[in-house]
């Protein structure tokens, strides 16, 4: 058959159709970025990782966002905007359940990317952070209106903030659980928080005496003690070896005689936080009469620890994801052991819960402490500890 004939042309392979760009590519990028930022933290995450998640090149990603900060800021906005939009669709006068249900559903659906707000929002610039606070304030105000209609108490929105903390806790852990069941558990936890009286001393609660943070008696301990407030205030990635060295009167090169690198100081801080909490739990559980009293003791201990060691705890919670696997592993194991104690005691009190359900509720309690503590500006007073402990027990369904 002669070349160029119509039959020859029909037999030739068709040219591949040019790839079409998804209309929602920007949305796909933001969703992928939210997952990466939540999992790895703002400074550890890279634009290349985000691009790989979407299946595009880094160059293509930069056509949508000029830099990592712009992408990060949009991730933070999108999460809160989605919650605000969901509430805008709830009719005025809707009951508390009607207000909390859509917030719970959206948070669970986006749990992989929702962690951006809790710890990473501190890396936003002042104006972006202010704008985000205004949006979150609208959420709190709407939830508080519903809380006060059903459970009127002069608590200055503490229960509303804590209820949102219980719901948002699902973004901070990886417990595998069906979406519908997670929604049911978190909604019940939030409703339990809203129905609690922060001014009431929880039955069976006792004052907690935590072990004191070790007095730094060596240069290595001094470096650790000086680093924690710097990490807490500025974020690990923004603190330099020079700043740490100046805080203890050393030259930057002298730090290496005590720690191989800055990341090893962070690992030591995370391990110290886990050790202090573990020691506090051991002390608080001595002589408890039964599982309910044990859960109350666990809640009171975690609250006391969070108020007394706020900087250390915030560093451990916010920066753990940035540790390399070998340094993170012992900290994660200590955290799992701590949660296992909660899980065991909670299931003795509420035998209808399976291990995963109990774990989700334990994390909901932790979320209550974080957001309620922030709302109280971590002012360490007996009445604040008692209020937050009561809210944690409400989240646990006690």
List the helices and strands and how they pair.
Elements: H1 6-11, H2 25-40, H3 47-54, H4 58-64, H5 68-88, H6 96-109, H7 116-120, H8 126-150, H9 158-168, H10 179-194, H11 219-234, H12 241-248, H13 262-285, H14 291-308, H15 310-319, H16 325-349, H17 355-375, H18 382-395
Helix pairs in contact: 2-3, 2-5, 3-4, 5-6, 5-8, 6-10, 8-9, 9-10, 9-17, 10-17, 10-18, 11-12, 11-13, 11-15, 13-14, 13-15, 13-16, 14-16, 14-17, 14-18, 16-17, 17-18
- Characterize the largest beta sheet: strand count, sense, and whether it forms a barrel: none
Q: State the helical fraction.
A: 55-70%
Task: Look at the helices and sheets and give the structural class.
Answer: mainly alpha
Gap between N and C termini, in Å?
86 Å
Arithmetic mean pLDDT? 89
Order of helices and strands: HHHHHHHHHHHHHHHHHH
Low-confidence stretches: 1-19
Rg of Cα set? 24 Å
Shape: globular
Percent range for β-strand residues: under 5%
Q: Total helix count?
A: 18
Number-wise, the strands total: 0
GO biological process, one term: negative regulation of DNA-templated transcription
Keywords: DNA-binding, Transcription, Transcription regulation
Pfam family, one: TetR_N
Protein name: TetR/AcrR family transcriptional regulator
List its salient traits.
67% helix; transcription regulation; 398 residues; mainly alpha; HTH-type_TetR-like_transc_reg; Homeodomain-like_sf
Model description:
By secondary structure, the chain is an all-alpha fold. The protein is built from 18 helices and no strands. Helix 6 packs across helix 10 (179-194) and helix 11 (219-234) crosses helix 13. The termini are far apart. The relative contact order is 0.11. Mean pLDDT is 89; it is low at 1-19.
């Amino acid at each position: 058959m002669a070349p160029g004939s119509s039959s020859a042309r029909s037999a030739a392979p068709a040219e591949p159709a040019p790839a079409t760009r998804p209309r929602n590519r920007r949305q796909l990028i933001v969703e992928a970025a939210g997952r990466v930022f939540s999992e790895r933290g703002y400074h550890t995450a890279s634009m290349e990782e985000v691009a790989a998640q979407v299946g595009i090149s880094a160059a293509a990603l930069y056509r949508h966002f000029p830099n990592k900060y712009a992408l990060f800021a949009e991730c933070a906005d999108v999460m809160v905007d989605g919650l605000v939009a969901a509430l805008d669709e709830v009719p005025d006068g809707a009951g508390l359940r009607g207000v909390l249900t859509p917030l719970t559903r959206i948070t669970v659906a986006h749990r992989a990317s929702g962690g951006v707000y809790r710890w990473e929002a501190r890396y936003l610039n002042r104006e972006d952070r202010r704008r985000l606070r205004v949006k979150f304030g609208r959420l709190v105000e709407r939830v508080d209106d519903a809380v006060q209609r059903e459970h009127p108490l002069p608590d200055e929105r503490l229960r509303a903030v804590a209820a949102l903390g219980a719901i948002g806790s699902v973004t901070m852990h990886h417990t595998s659980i069906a979406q519908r069941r997670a929604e049911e558990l978190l909604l019940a936890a939030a409703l339990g928080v809203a129905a609690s009286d922060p001014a009431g001393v929880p039955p069976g609660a006792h004052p907690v005496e935590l072990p004191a943070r070790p007095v730094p008696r060596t240069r290595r301990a001094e470096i650790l003690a000086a680093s924690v407030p710097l990490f807490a205030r500025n974020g690990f990635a923004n603190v330099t070896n020079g700043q740490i060295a100046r805080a203890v009167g050393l030259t930057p090169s002298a730090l290496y005689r005590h720690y191989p690198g800055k990341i090893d100081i962070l690992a030591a801080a995370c391990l110290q936080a886990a050790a202090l909490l573990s020691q506090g739990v051991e002390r608080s559980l001595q002589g408890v009469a039964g599982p309910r009293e044990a859960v109350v003791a666990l809640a009171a201990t975690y609250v006391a620890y969070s108020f007394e060691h706020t900087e250390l705890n915030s560093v451990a919670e916010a920066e753990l994801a940035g540790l390399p696997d070998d340094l993170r592993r012992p900290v994660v194991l200590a955290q799992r052991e701590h949660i296992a104690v909660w899980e065991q005691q909670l299931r003795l009190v509420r035998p209808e819960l399976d291990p995963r359900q109990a774990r989700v509720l334990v994390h909901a309690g932790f979320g209550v402490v974080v957001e309620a503590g922030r709302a109280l500006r971590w002012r360490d007073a007996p009445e604040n500890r008692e209020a937050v402990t009561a809210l944690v027990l409400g989240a646990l369904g006690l």
